[in-house]
Amino acid sequence: MNIRSGYFRKHLHVNLTDGEIERLDLSETFLEKYIGGRGFGAKLVWDNLRMHDFKIDPLGPENLLVIAPGPLTGVYLPSSGKCSFISISPATGMYGDSSAGGAFGVELRQSGIDVLSIKGRAPELSILFIDNDSTEIIPMPELKGKSCLETEGIIFEKLGTYAMHIAAIGVGGENQVLFACVNTDWSRNAGRTGIGAIMGSKNLKAIAVRGHKDLPVYDVNGLVAEADRAYEYLSKHKYFELWQQQGLMNVIEYANEHGILPTYNFRDTVFVRHDRINGEEMLDRYKIGDSACFACSMTCGNICLVKNGKYTGTVTEGPEYESCAMLGSNLGVDNFAAVLAANRLCDELGIDTISTGNIIGAVIEGYEQGILSLADIDNEEIAWGDEDAILNLIRKIAFREGVGDILSQGSLRIIERWPEMEKIILHVKGLEQSAYDSRAGISMALGYATSDIGAHHTRAWTIAKEMEEGQNWTDEEKVEIVIYHQTLRPLFDMLGVCRLPWIELGLNERHYENFYRYVTGRETSLEELLERSKDIYDLTRLINTRMGVNRKDDTLPYKVYARPVLTGPNAGKVIDKDEFQKLLSLYYKRRGWDENGIPPREIEAKFDD
């Protein structure tokens, strides 16, 4: 059945090398099969890889960067501000994506574009300016070395308007730090998989978008009624006010209580001074305002200001849980003002807080254990909780100075330089692990190991469910919950909406089939949408296997198998290798892949068009 609305049916393709700009038509079949967001991106990246016989340098001009909102981005429904950034990751050498909230994706849609793809390399540092139906590549060498926030201000002044949204990189992206991020709307980041390094490799400092077009919606009245019901449900939830007050910072308390909070480079999972960096501490001493992504009533962004002490005047949006945990407890930092300073510095320099905190934690432990010598770290000592040394190392990573040059290349290159670091650094396939310890729940471990981008929680955050309900789960049930999360959560990325209303406040998934129907005019079901999302997971797996990934790579960090949790409710726990391998075989069977994790030809044939 035709999709009658919901899309502009336009693909903007930009070649930075020769300056060619094309507006291409999207077919109904493409829209129906791939929906939007990471679905569009995965297909376009797959097609580009096939053109290059799957031999591609992620930092070369032939690598394709895709930026795609979804059909629900920018319309009236809860948390519809998401936009996906998709490419081949320079950190992992395989499929990579990251999503950003705020309103950049909304503005992109309002310019009449469903998907933007960028190839090549500009002759000099430039920005891409999309102004409704007009697109320009504008050289701006004066932006070199500017922070993400400075870049926004200069572009506003240069283009003579604030009526736009900007996605920019900092010096981390310019210097091709392999975990550089893309910063939008002050501190809404596409943080993972090194998308910022890809922009840097293309000499693309920023993308500025101004759009005034009405979004295509098939049934506005039906959509408004459905959205009102969803907003009403959220507003009456018992934790709604807590989310408005603390946002994701409330997870610090939860993670510490349940023994999954990364502490001292994941050596432990309980931080005895967690109350100095939790949501209550933020509310009592630092929070000065709220912020929210487009159409979101949860307002989970916290505007914080340091009012006294050595970091006086530091203001930032954040931190959220991941940043606070990885730059706080994981590094032994118990000063919330120092966490804010580190978070702000990462945002300004344009590097991912999760990877940064993970790698610095490994450096501290590596030095403590004698794996790294004092000479290895530039004769500058570093220890748990050493705020000055941590901030200095953040700068060194972004500028690739001294030991920062090696650290900027991520876990795989660090291990190449110092093989013993493999025993203490936490990554899967080269992507540093998110801030949830998995030794407490094997389903979470399976989710990390089989994630199509590496050890990131957004694909399958099953840890809470398993700790609270999973004591008697069968192996099949553990596999099923991982696959369900890996299907539903990426569907949100395809639709262009945030997962938090569902995962945190329990908004029923059925709302999204109704949202999609009212926006596009296409009769569908949640089950059908989930099938499309499952297809995309197969597609990203195909991309990865063509880049060399197989069963040997679907594994866990050494610590998860060999280093028991030290204290707290999960003391003594590790993941049993044999049990994990058994679950992995069940997982492959349930997905229809072979014993080595390779999808068969009949799955690949779905994407031959």
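^ that was protein a. below is b, sequence first then the tokens
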Amino acid sequence: MRDLAGARYPWRFRVVIALLLAMVAAIAWRIVDLHVIDHDFLKGQGDARSVRHITIPAHRGLITDRNGEPLAVSTPVATLWANPKELVLEREKWGFLADALGQPKAALSERLDANADKEFIYLVRGLTPEQGDAVMAQVKTHRIPGVYSVEEFRRFYPSGEVAAQVVGFTDVDDRGREGVELAFDSWLAGVPGKRQVLKDRRGHLIRDVQVTRNAKAGKTLALSIDLRLQYLANRELRNALVENGAKAGSLVILDVKSGEVLAMANQPTYNPNNRRNLQPAMMRNRAMIDVFEPGSTMKPFSMSAALETGRWKPTDKVEVYPGTLQIGRYTIRDVSRTEGPVLDLTGILIRSSNVGMSKVAFDIGGEAIYSLMQKVGLGQDTGLGFPGERVGNLPNYREWRKAETATLSYGYGLSVTAIQLAHAYAALANNGRSVPLTMVRADRPAEATQVIPEPVAKTMQGMLQQVIEAPNGVYRAQVPGYHVAGKSGTARKTATGAKGYAENSYRSLFAGFAPMSNPRYVAVVVIDEPSKAGYFGGLVSAPVFSKVMSGTLRLMNVPPDNLPATPQQQADAAPAAKGGRG
């Protein structure tokens, strides 16, 4: 029968055989191709079903103060996560999991049911490695499916609230969110690595294959902050707020030679290690964010502008009687009593005479004052790169009328931050040379710019020393053993949501530098709304300056330049005095 069919249809038989042979050849060729020539396809398909890449977290860079004391460190923590699709298969074990996590079973069950269609949820983050191991041991004992542990890092701040607003903090994913942590996030953040592992279809780890990319740790950042001075500033500022019943305050210490920020304290503050009850107002770095009218602390710059014109000398006198000056519908008043009808320029600073300062300003014009204030950095970015920093406002008018000229000369009509005010005073203390500010430790000072003529700056240093040491000066700012210079200020606060100034609402200010033999450090104190013992800057802020500057000079081992003469020195001076009289 087969012979007859083959004889009747010989071509069909051959076609079938040929097709079968072609199919066998194609299959054989494909097998050889996949296993010998192009084996990457099968490997890729297998890897897609079993090979996984696990992220290796990178260690965030250390933040230290200028002396290497840690301000922010990263510690390893365990994070537990779950695959709800696996967990729902064994609901009877949820109670064991809840007990191991220390969570209510009802709350955990509700979370798992709500995410039953998902493959990933966090169970708990930030456990210590020991706590994480203990939980995973319970998971293994009770054979609870779908629960996994990964290693992460958590930020810890050893200085706590002392430098909170400066250092800032990171979020739960270890990304910078405030302060230096945010400003230098790209420098501090490392590059995560990758580890290749084999897992079965249930996600269980079969084998750790290899590290395909090593994690790269973040870089260390050494700040210019001196933690010793930061503790000092924070303590004295906190005490001042309590003693004066104040709302808030800030304090800045600068190195006038290098432009480094040595301390920047703000109150109220918070603990970055425990932010559960954190109020947003506590996070404000007020020294760089809060702007205010600086009041009489601007008079030294207005006076410097007058000296720079050559039209005025420190001994020139101005009539200030009767302590008021009418300009149209505005009346300028002197708060403190003046002794006599006239004051010289130093006397204007000592008595903080608005009338005297205004008359000097009328003579030189508002443009001269504006130009000098701009040169010392007011109304401009400090270049620190701090998130949220404000530049304030330094107004410039096409036509300087008397009202605008007068108010600018004694510190109204413009706004500054505490760090800007400190930077401006640093230029005066540095013989008229302005150095760019930095929050990072400087190995060598940046190039300085001469913004005030050196003779003018040195003359102003002597005048500001008299503001502190003269019989009617701001004696509360004096520092035992040292000659210091500075100026107090009291500024009314603007009313919130309305024009004009608020009633009985003031900022008390003091800005100064020391030692006068070689000015090195500037400190600015701002106390917001003192309510107990008065509100004048010389009464409220000057004592804080005295304590902080005294501690700074001693901690930095600065030799005293105002010690009383020893008996031997007095005896040696006596013969010379006799010879002089002869």
